[in-house]
Amino acid sequence: MQPIAWQISLVLMALVAFGFAFVAINSGRRQEDYTPLQKSAYRLRTRLFWGLVLVFGPAMIYTLLELPYDAARANAGAGPVQVVEATGYQWRWELSQDRVAVGQPVEFRVTSADVNHGFGIYDANLHLVAQTQAMPGYINTLRHTFSEEGTYKILCMEYCGLAHHNMLTEIRVGAQ
Ligand code: CUA
């Protein structure tokens, strides 16, 4: 050990020992009246609590206004569930049907015939509306109700080899 480190550790040990001794000596003394201190601490705590409520309450309400979020809304929609089987291959998608009705829940049953793929549904502006993973040996269920008609793109969202970028198809959402 370096001489300086040795001296520092000796000082620190002395401080700790002093702390213990101080507590041991003072523990015998009569308890002082801490009531005023306790009262002001409680007052401070109450103010802090209401301060936090004032700050975070509106923030919480503001974020909850968006409820239900899209994922929660996915099961909404009228009519029977339309089931679409989707299978990923290097490098294409196979759908059991490429037309669904608007406003009516769709259940995508997504799997892969080879490696992991990402199943992403995009609207005409290429905004992602729903997604799940396509995995060999598993069927991932993705429920979504399309609220607008149009042609949606299904793109692979996970790098799966050379032609990953070519792995796309379309699904048309039309009137019921
Ligand atoms: Cu399939 Cu990337």
Automatic annotation (TrEMBL):
InterPro entries hit by this protein: CcO_II-like_C, Copper_CuA, Cupredoxin, NosZ/Cyto_c_oxidase_sub2
Keywords assigned by UniProt, alphabetized: Copper, Membrane, Metal-binding, Transmembrane, Transmembrane helix
Source species, domain of life: Bacteria
Domain Cytochrome oxidase subunit II copper A binding: start-end pairs: 79-176
Subcellular location(s) per record: Cell envelope
Transmembrane segments: 6-27, 48-65
Entry-linked Pfam families: COX2
Record protein name field: Cytochrome C oxidase subunit II
Species, as recorded: Aromatoleum anaerobium
Lineage: Bacteria, Pseudomonadati, Pseudomonadota, Betaproteobacteria, Rhodocyclales
